[in-house]
Amino acid sequence: MNMTPIPEQSLSTPLFDRTSWTQLLEHSAREVFDIMLGTSLQPYVSASTPSDGEFTALVGLAGSLCGVLSIRCANQSASIMAGKMLGLPPEDVGDDSWDALGEIANMVAGNFKGKLSGVGNHCMLSVPTIIVGTDYRAHSLSGGNTLETVFEFDGKPFWVTLKLHE
Predict the structure, then answer these.
(1) Which CATH number characterizes residue 75's domain?
(2) pLDDT tens-digit profile of 87-99?
(3) Which of 23, 53, 93, 103 has the highest Cβ tally under 10 A?
């Protein structure tokens, strides 16, 4: 495993920098997938819409950083992730795919906040929430910034989104 260190973001610099925070979010997802699933994430280049994600895992952030991290993917992708985590064939994981996706979202959120100097110890994560299906819309009550990146996992799109509250 070859991990390239990324400089920590400091609260003494501007609180939000889209470019550096997007890089930190991408790096956090790649680290989690590399360490926990033995999988190297690559950018997804095909045009695809978020409605392709049948499973959504949500993790809330509260404290010095407030917002919601979400991970969306196809049912098959969630089953493969769970299988890799549990050492089982994807067809044998059943509802454990929900727990696995929630845990992955939790690890990505924790990894991301840990990369922001001065934020990690002052930001709490919620228990993951899993949404199954595509017929929903999420709306945040306050404005803010949104970061989103799309990776390829098992040939399918996999979205990592961070919606920050002002």
Answers:
(1) 3.40.1550.10
(2) 999 999 988 899 9
(3) 53
